């Protein structure tokens, strides 16, 4: 783990680096995060490290224990499926609301993201694809003026994408399927068709669960 630069927020940088290592599986479930070791590796004091770990605990990626080092939270097939169930409810409701807040700039951002997704899939860079997939859904969430709903979607996407990042090397074909589903969502938003947007998102969420179960069994 590389040392971080100090001009930016140390807590933010520590959070980003540790979060990435958890999502990529470099830090395994139940692995301890001793403060002294991680502070030394990152080249920072314990204060910003503690702040970063608290944020990771809020995301559900870390478990805090009194008198003991924090540990990486466990993550099972059932955890992923439960999160996908909640995510489906949140994201289908969100896209209905976002139909009323579509702007040209918003559509440009979605299309640019989709273009990058396709490039990543064509280059077999599935870790990058999953990152862009997550960003697509967060763009949708961020367009909603309901801040609390936006925050909930950000949090739930962390858990869902943890599942897919762990299994990222197991699927080449369905990345293009997901991109096609994202295009359907964009098309519905362009037309400002609430029913079509909801239908496209609901089908996308169903397919995400189907793909996850396939990858899980194949992996």
From TrEMBL:
Residues 8-75 form the HTH gntR-type domain. PANTHER family: GNTR FAMILY REGULATORY PROTEIN, TRANSCRIPTIONAL REGULATOR, GNTR FAMILY. Keywords: DNA-binding, Transcription, Transcription regulation. GO terms for molecular function: DNA binding; DNA-binding transcription factor activity. This is GntR family transcriptional regulator. SUPFAM superfamilies: GntR ligand-binding domain-like, Winged helix' DNA-binding domain. It comes from the Bacteria. InterPro entries: GntR_C, TF_FadR/GntR_C, Tscrpt_reg_HTH_GntR, WH-like_DNA-bd_sf, WH_DNA-bd_sf. The keyword Secreted does not apply.
């Amino acid at each position: 783990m590389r040392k971080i630069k100090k001009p930016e927020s140390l807590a933010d940088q520590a959070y980003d680096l540790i979060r990435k290592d958890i999502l990529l599986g470099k830090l395994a479930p139940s692995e301890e995060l001793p403060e002294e070791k991680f502070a030394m590796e990152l080249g920072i004091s314990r204060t910003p490290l503690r702040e970063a770990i608290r944020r990771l605990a809020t995301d559900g990626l870390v478990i805090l224990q009194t008198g003991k080092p924090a540990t990486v939270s466990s993550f099972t097939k059932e955890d992923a499926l439960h999160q996908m169930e909640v995510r489906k409810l949140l994201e289908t409701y969100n896209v209905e609301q976002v139909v009323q807040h579509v702007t040209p700039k918003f559509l440009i951002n979605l299309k640019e993201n989709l273009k990058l997704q396709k490039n990543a899939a064509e280059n077999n860079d599935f870790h990058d694809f999953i990152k862009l997939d997550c960003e697509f859904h967060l763009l949708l969430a961020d367009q909603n003026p309901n801040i609390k709903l936006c925050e909930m979607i950000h949090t739930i996407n962390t858990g869902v994408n943890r599942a897919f990042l762990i299994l990222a090397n197991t699927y080449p074909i369905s990345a293009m399927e997901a991109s096609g589903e994202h295009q359907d969502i964009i098309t519905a938003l362009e037309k400002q068709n609430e029913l079509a947007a909801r239908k496209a998102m609901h089908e996308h969420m169903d397919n995400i669960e189907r793909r996850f179960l396939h990858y899980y069994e194949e992996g």
